[in-house]
Amino acid sequence: MPPIPLLFTLPIEPSGSIACTQPSPKVYLLTFSSPPDNRLTASFCNAFHLALDIIAHRYPKGVVVSTSGIAKFYSNGLDYETAIKTQGFFRDTLYPLCKRLLTYPMPTVALMNGHAFAGGLMTAMMHDYRIMNPHRGFICINELEFGAPLPAPMASIFRQKVPSPNTFRNMVLEAKRFNALEALKEGLVDSLGGLEETLTLIKELKLEGKAKTGVYGRLKAVLWGETIGYLEEADVDDRRRDAWVKNQNKVEEQEKKKVEVWDRGQIGKSKL
């Protein structure tokens, strides 16, 4: 195969980059490499978002494919501790990227060459199609394992795109890891393979020409309106979640008092 033309590169702090190449006419391949595992930092998200904008405004309409230059990981999700400590990270950085992907005016394909965990899988789900390496990697929502709540937009996109509620339950409440064959069976990915198979899928579905009428992004906005609503109302969701936690704390205190009353009753019975 001849060298793939390089269109542009963007830096990801502190030592990463996103490179845009063109492996086929009107197919734009974004390859991100942010060692060690493509965490969704502010710099990563901003660079990804800018790359999408450059393609949309400087190149002919076609198809955008995202993949990783790190063989082991597509993305390992958020740098969670940094994300929750960074004022406005979700509202001002992560969610705008998700909305841009979800309503992008061209078809998008996530080529998951390695693991996609938590926010990394969420990012892949914001694409229109997903292709997974059949030989390496798992995908999962593993918030359960590191004690993080599931943000409403993340829950919404999986609820809208995962075909089976039972599969979604297993993903969230069991942190189940899916290999490529399992992911294909459960409808989490559309196909298996690498770049060659991705280009074949694009050709078979004639995706290069889908954006030419100018309504592709608007149609997606209608399809995924529920998730877009959550992305746009991040502050409302935060307040709703905080109110729920506060109320739940009160409920738990009331429950504990009931159990204490029951305990005292059991002590009396044990003397009979």
Structural class: alpha/beta
Low-pLDDT windows of residues: none
Q: Determine the N-to-C terminus distance.
A: 86 Å
Largest sheet: 7 strands, mixed
Q: Taking all residues together, what is the mean pLDDT?
A: 93
Tally of DSSP β-strands:
10
**H-E string:** EEEHEEHHEEHEEHHHHEHHHH
How are strands sequenced across the largest beta sheet?
1-2-3-4-6-8-10
Proportion of residues in helical segments: 40-55%
What's the tally of helices? Answer: 12
Provide the gyration radius in Å: 22 Å
Specify the overall morphology: elongated
Classify the beta-strand content into a percent band.
Answer: 15-25%
What can you tell me about this protein's structure?
- The chain has 272 residues and is of the alpha/beta class.
- Helix content is 50%, strand content 18%.
- The protein has 12 helices and 10 strands.
- The protein has helices spanning 42-58, 80-85, 89-102, 119-125, 143-146, 152-161, 165-173, 180-185, 195-204, 216-223, 225-232, 234-270, and strands spanning 6-12, 16-24, 27-33, 63-68, 73-75, 108-112, 115-117, 129-132, 139-140, 191-192.
- The strands form 2 sheets. A 7-stranded mixed sheet has the order 1-2-3-4-6-8-10, sandwiched between helices. A 3-stranded parallel sheet has the order 5-7-9.
- A hairpin with a 2-residue loop joins strand 2 and strand 3 (27-33).
- Helix 1 runs parallel beside helix 3 (89-102) and helix 6 packs antiparallel against helix 11 (225-232).
- It is elongated, with a radius of gyration of 22 Å.
